[in-house]
Specification:
By secondary structure, the chain is an alpha/beta fold. Helix 1 (10-21) runs antiparallel to helix 3, helix 1 packs across helix 13 (320-336) and helix 4 (82-88) packs parallel to helix 5 (108-117). The strands form two sheets. Strands 4-3-2-1-5-6-7 form a seven-stranded mixed β-sheet, sandwiched between helices. Strands 9-11-10-8-12-13 form a six-stranded mixed β-sheet. The protein is 41% helix and 21% strand. Bound molecules: L-homoserine (HSE). L-homoserine binds next to helix 8.
Length: 337
């Protein structure tokens, strides 16, 4: 499978590390033999080679600060602009994992359009294009007879999308709720242990949980973007960010956390999705609430269904390999088809 990767930040590098470290296992168990034929970054250059790029050399170059450090090889093209790189690429699949922009979804949205309209499957870890243009991308994918996959956009690689759209097929889902942001759950958990909000945020950034602009996490917008993606995927609802009540955790102090603890409660950032709407709200929940036990960068989603009652999925909500795995799971599905 020839792959182009747009974005080589935490997530893109995580995917490359997985493909490097599990190459033998992926080939042996699944017959999956990926070849990276193009990579593009926002500020560290682009590379393309229809004969394939070396994953190890890509990681070395990007970790040295720029793809210029990648060695010269036959057939290598440097610094094509990203739209040209996508359109010209021999890739069967484009992976979009550049930083999420929830205001315009750009430049990633144009990359997504170019990928599908030039006949590539599209796998997203980037939430922006789906949160702002889900219907358009679904239509483009249908017109191109290509797959649009986005497991990594909600709860990293924890299979929240697959559970709802594949494993629960035949059930009617009435509602989904849970904890859909790793950064804020990590910060709140650290604050329960006495750490300051700002120190906990710095840790969440160092651990690769936070968005490039972490205000999206702490003010609730990252979770709200995931609510829109779930609303579209589960209910085909056309809710937008403007339709939703959204609050974050940046106003919550250590005193607030201690006051809740004294009352036998915890602060959590709870997302909710129904066929008619969605919300993201910081709220106090009792310690015996199932979501109270979900700590650190772990996330959880509960789907309320007609035939099974409530089905809850708990797992990683953010992180380098955790999100890289979400992309891998989509690539494996596409390869199977
Ligand atoms: N910044 C996001 C989070 C990454 O903390 O949940 C995963 O979408």
């Amino acid at each position: 499978m020839k792959i182009a990767i747009i974005g080589l930040g935490v997530v893109g590098q995580g995917l490359l590390e997985i493909l490097r470290d599990k190459a033998a296992e992926l080939a042996g168990r699944y017959g999956f033999q990926p070849q990276i034929v193009a990579v593009a970054t926002g500020s560290k250059g682009t590379l393309a080679n229809a004969d394939g790029l070396s994953i190890s050399e890509l990681l070395t170059a990007i970790q040295a600060g720029h793809l210029d450090h990648y060695p010269n090889t036959a057939g290598l093209q440097r610094n094509l602009d990203t739209l040209t790189l996508i359109r010209q690429s021999s890739a069967a699949v484009v992976v979009e994992c550049s930083p999420t922009n929830l205001q315009t979804a750009q430049p990633a949205l144009d990359y997504c359009r170019a990928s599908l309209s030039s006949g590539k499957h599209l796998v997203l870890a980037n939430k922006g294009p789906l949160a702002l243009a889900y219907a358009e991308l679904v239509t483009l994918a249908q017109q191109a007879h290509k797959q649009l996959r986005f497991e990594a956009t909600v709860m990293a690689g924890t299979p929240s999308i697959r559970l709802a759209l594949q494993a629960l097929r035949g059930c009617t889902i009435h509602e989904a709720h849970g904890i859909l942001n790793g950064t804020t759950n990590y910060i709140l958990t650290q604050m329960e242990g006495g750490m300051s909000y700002s120190d906990a945020l710095v840790q969440a950034q160092q651990l690769g949980y936070a968005e490039t602009d972490p205000t999206a996490d702490v003010d609730g917008w990252d979770a709200a973007g995931k609510v829109i993606i779930l609303a579209r995927a589960l209910f085909n609802s056309s809710i937008t960010l403007a339709d939703m009540a959204v609050s974050g955790i940046s106003q919550i102090t250590l005193d607030d956390v201690r006051t809740a603890q004294a009352a036998g409660e915890k602060w959590k950032l709870i997302a909710r999705v129904t066929p008619s709407g969605g919300s993201v709200q910081a709220m106090r929940i009792p310690l015996n609430h199932p979501l109270a036990a979900v700590s650190g960068a772990t996330n959880a989603v509960t789907y309320a269904t007609d035939l099974l009652g409530e089905v809850t999925l708990v797992g990683a909500g953010a992180g380098r390999l955790q999100t890289g795995f979400g992309i891998l799971s989509d690539l494996l599905d596409i390869a199977d088809r």
